[in-house]
Amino acid sequence: QDRWGGWIGRDTAYAFAEYADAVSGALGDGIDTWITLNEPWVSAYLGYGWGSHAPGYRSMQLGMQASHHLLLAHGLSVPILRRNSPSRVGITLNFSPIESATDDPEDVEAAMRADVNVNLWFLEPLYRGRYHETVLPELSHAKLRVHDGDMQTIAAPIDFLGVNYYTRFLLKHGPSVDNPFGSYVELPQAERTAMGWEVHPDGFYRTLMRIHREYHPGEMIITENGAAFPDVLSSDGRVHDERRIAYYATHLEQVERAIADGAPVTGYFAWSLLDNFEWAEGYRPRFGLVYVDYETQRRIMKDSGYWYRDRIAAARSETSRPA
Description:
The chain contains ten helices and ten strands. The chain is of the alpha/beta class. Strand 9 and strand 10 form a beta hairpin. Helix 1 packs parallel to helix 3, helix 2 (40-49) runs antiparallel to helix 3 and helix 9 runs parallel beside helix 10.
């Protein structure tokens, strides 16, 4: 397997640690917060397990091995970043509630397995120093190469957990070309973004509370939350993206609800400032608060950008008001 390189090879984890050492050594105290990895599940499983992202392998065995080496790279880097920079260190994971499309036992089982893979695969090693008990037979079958001391390295204490949330999924059993666990089911009445993702703000609240109650991170930061829609530049020179405004408003309500119920959320970042290149989707999906005319590179603030600006200003005013 090592001959293929990339995250399948263990040496990549050590190369990443060297990279972290070089960057943090050069920047030093100029950086106060480090995120070691962003969405390692996507890199491991969409790249090596499901094959929808580069390098395009379709092997859950390779996905598991890549995920372990990504975790190892994180764990090796944490003490290096702390040594080189008086800063806070964390990691960002992507989360999506995965629920059974029906009460059929096979659907329930498939959704459970997919949920563990997507939502718990990285949390268990990071916070408990082990892989989830339900996947141990799969790891044994895949002959996952875990060296002595790996799990202790991976579980190095972190200062915060970055949380990326966009949607939830309903799953029906029966592996498909794009998903080894089953097929996603779309509710006909559900609102969907340009990515085909259901707009489901309640899933955001449940995700934050689940992480809080089961893994007890000292701090959570919402590092990504947002939606792509088919934005167009109107004749008045504006981009009227009311659906994005509604998405942010309802999702921020769920963040506030989670905070009120004890979740230690200390920050929120909208995804994203600008329309940008989105993984395998290229420039087609537009997530930005600012519209980018790709032909001229002109930047135009969308209505959602103005709304978000005003929302931030109002929150700042509220927190600075004397009690």
